[in-house]
Structure formats: structure tokens, C-alpha cells
Design brief:
The protein has about 375 residues and is mainly α. The chain has 17 helices and five strands. Helix 12 crosses helix 13.
Length: about 375
């Protein structure tokens, strides 16, 4: 009950704050574009959350045993955003030992009840030639296709399971809708979160994982990919004592401007004004913490529970990186999985990113990169940017 009241209070504060955000001096109040988007966004969003909430409640009636599911040796892929977390996640998802969340489950079927409902409809649709499936695929490409250069995804693709925490106000992505300090605090959870907040989020996340395993197989290991879980690493390690963590890292020259540009693409959907300074300053501070916290927490964990993936190596030799991580964790490579990795190795040679941007237009200068991330360049042997 206390958790439900806490979430209701977040919505009561968040809805008006979303219409009149505070971006700092000269950027207070509402823009016409934001008001129009917010008026369209909240009714649809709240309707989906009400449906999802009903499904979650039904789980306690229809599938009460999900609460007894044991979460065994989950693997968390964390790290600096834009550092190969998605690539590594989709490589690991090829291993049948794992189960991971798909976008459709996160957005429209967080409950067991909904998953059975939608899979039953999909089965019926398949029997009559998939007319609904083809229409859905067409709509998906129209809605998500424009993001392919930044983060290619589809409803059936593996996706970040922190989206499953949207109902409990635990998903940082909501900051695009509600640029509020309470959501920014999620990016420093290990450091700034209260014990009560950490317990609330971990309890909600454990229930989410139990539901997922109940539906997909209790013999499976959860594979979770979330750069936004990087500042939650210690909290997650305490909540799941047998969890493994893979931290992903990349040259700040590439990761920092790329992430700022990515968030600005989302921000422009909600805001007609120029808010570049707000997002740049916020993400510079956030990413500084991510780099430091990632390495600090990995260093505190036993070698058998942690590994580091450097993007420049992963992109060149993905199969080798995965094989080395498995040796570190004491796992064996399934022969079929090994062959799939070899195929990904061949594909990696021809990959070129479709994400293009001008770092100077983002206000990310070589001087600032050196000042904030100079220690990263030095520790990992990256060339420092020149002014």
C-alpha cells in the first residue's frame, strides 16, 4: 500500500511538472510544442499503465506461484551508454541458457497474464496468415524506423528491462517527459538513494524478473542490459548476491557526444525550445559518475562475478570477447552458440554506425572532455582530443 501511494504521489507531481519544466535560467515554463505533446502523451500513457496494472494484479490471482520463482545467477550488462551494451546484449541473447526481455513485453505485457493473452492472439493470427502481424510490423517500422541510426529496435527485439520499472517510477527515460530531480537522482542511486528507495526499487524489480522467468522458464538465467543500471550496480549486487556484471566502456570522444546527441533527439520530441545546455550539463555530470562508479564497483567484486568489455575490442573481435568472459565466469560455450558467435564475427567486419552528429553543435569541446574524462584517456591509452 505504501508503495502504491508513493507511485500515485509521483504521478500527481509529475504530470504538472511535465507541462512546466524547469530547464534553468531562461528556460522555465511551457512551450506550445510541449503542451501539445503532453496533452497527447498522458492519456495514452496512463491508459497503458492502467491496463498493465490490472494485468499485474491479476497475476496474484491467476499465477500466484510466480512469487516463489528463484532468480539464479542473473547477468547484468551495464556500463557507459553508447559503449556496445546493445551489441553485447544481442550477442549474449543468442545463448539458449539466457532469457531476456523483448520490447513488446516491457511496454504492453509486463504481467504474466498479458503475455499469455498476447501470445494466444498471435497464435490465432498465425493460423489465418498473420494479417495482424503484418500490419503491426508496418506500424512498427513507421514509428521506430526513424531511430535506427541511433538505436535500432523492434517490438520483438531484446530491450532494456528498466522499462519494466516505469509503473513504479524507476525508469530514468521518463526524464524526457518529466525533467525532475527525483528522476535525475536515479542516475546516482548507489550514492544518493535512500535505503527505503533502494528497497522499493529492488522489490519491484525482483517481482518483474520472477514474472519473466515464470513465463519463459525457471531454468533460465536472466540476461539484463541496462546502461542506466550502472549507478545501481552495488544495490543490484547486494540484492542478487550471485549475479554477474559485465561493464562496457568506450573512448569518451565517441561515447559522450553520442549519448548527448541521442538524448537530444528524444528531447526534441517533447520540447520546441533549445534545451541543449540543460541536457549537456546533466549528462556530462552523469557520465563522469558512470565511468568512475563502473570501475569502482567492478573492482570490489570477485573476478568470477565481473568482467570488462572495451568497445574498440568488442567491435573488432566480438566472439573472442564473449569467450573470454565465459571463461572468467566459469561457463561453457554451447556449440550452437559458438557457431552463432562466429557468424557475428564475420558480420562485425562490415558494420558501420548510422548515428551521425556534430560534437561542436552539442557544445562538447575538447577542453571539457579533457577536463572531465582526462583520467579515462590516460588509464585506457586513448589519445586525448585536441582543441
Amino acid at each position: 500500500m505504501n508503495n502504491a501511494l508513493s507511485v500515485i504521489k509521483q504521478y500527481l507531481r509529475g504530470i504538472p511538472a511535465s507541462a512546466f519544466p524547469d530547464y534553468g535560467i531562461g528556460r522555465r515554463g511551457a512551450s506550445l510544442q510541449r503542451l501539445l505533446v503532453i496533452v497527447l502523451f498522458w492519456p495514452v500513457f496512463l491508459l497503458v499503465q492502467l491496463i498493465n496494472g490490472a494485468g499485474l494484479l491479476l497475476d496474484y490471482v491467476l499465477f500466484p506461484d510466480f512469487r516463489r520463482v528463484t532468480v539464479r545467477e542473473p547477468l547484468f550488462v551495464v556500463g557507459v551508454p553508447r559503449s556496445g551494451t546493445t551489441f553485447l546484449h544481442r550477442l549474449l541473447a543468442l545463448d539458449p541458457r539466457f532469457t531476456t526481455t523483448a520490447l513488446w513485453e516491457l511496454l504492453f505485457a509486463p504481467s504474466i497474464t498479458q503475455r499469455y493473452f498476447w501470445t494466444a492472439l498471435a497464435s490465432l493470427d498465425a493460423r489465418i496468415g498473420k494479417p495482424a502481424g503484418r500490419l503491426l510490423l508496418w506500424l512498427e517500422r513507421r514509428v521506430l524506423g526513424g531511430l535506427d541510426g541511433v538505436h535500432k529496435t523492434g517490438l520483438l527485439d531484446p530491450e532494456e528491462d528498466y522499462l519494466g520499472l516505469i509503473p513504479v517510477w524507476g525508469c530514468f527515460l521518463m526524464v524526457l517527459v518529466v525533467p525532475s530531480p527525483s528522476l535525475w537522482r536515479l542516475t546516482f542511486l548507489d550514492r544518493d538513494g535512500s535505503p527505503a528507495e533502494k528497497r522499493r526499487l529492488m522489490a519491484a524489480y525482483r517481482r518483474f524478473v520472477q514474472r519473466h522467468l515464470y513465463f519463459h522458464g525457471q531454468d533460465k538465467q536472466l540476461l539484463s542490459k541496462n546502461p542506466s543500471f550502472t549507478p545501481w550496480m552495488q544495490t543490484l549486487a547486494d540484492a542478487f548476491p550471485d549475479a554477474r556484471f559485465i561493464g562496457c566502456l568506450r573512448n569518451p570522444d565517441a561515447s559522450v557526444p553520442s549519448q548527448i546527441n541521442s538524448i537530444l533527439i528524444g528531447a526534441r520530441l517533447f520540447e520546441g525550445r533549445d534545451t541543449t545546455t540543460y541536457w549537456r550539463d546533466g549528462f556530462m555530470a552523469m557520465l563522469d559518475y558512470y565511468y568512475r562508479h563502473l570501475l569502482e564497483v567492478l573492482d570490489t567484486l570477485p573476478e568470477s562475478r565481473q568482467g570488462l568489455s572495451v568497445m574498440e575490442v568488442l567491435a573488432d573481435r566480438p566472439a573472442e570477447v564473449v569467450a573470454q568472459l565465459y571463461i572468467r565466469f566459469g561457463w561453457t560455450l554451447d556449440p550452437a552458440f559458438r557457431e552463432r558467435l562466429a557468424e557475428q564475427d564475420r558480420k562485425a567486419k562490415g558494420y558501420r554506425s548510422g548515428h551521425h552528429y556534430d560534437p561542436q553543435s552539442l557544445g562538447v569541446s575538447a577542453e571539457e572532455l579533457n577536463a572531465v574524462f582526462g583520467w579515462v584517456y590516460d588509464r585506457f591509452g586513448y589519445s586525448r582530443p585536441e582543441a
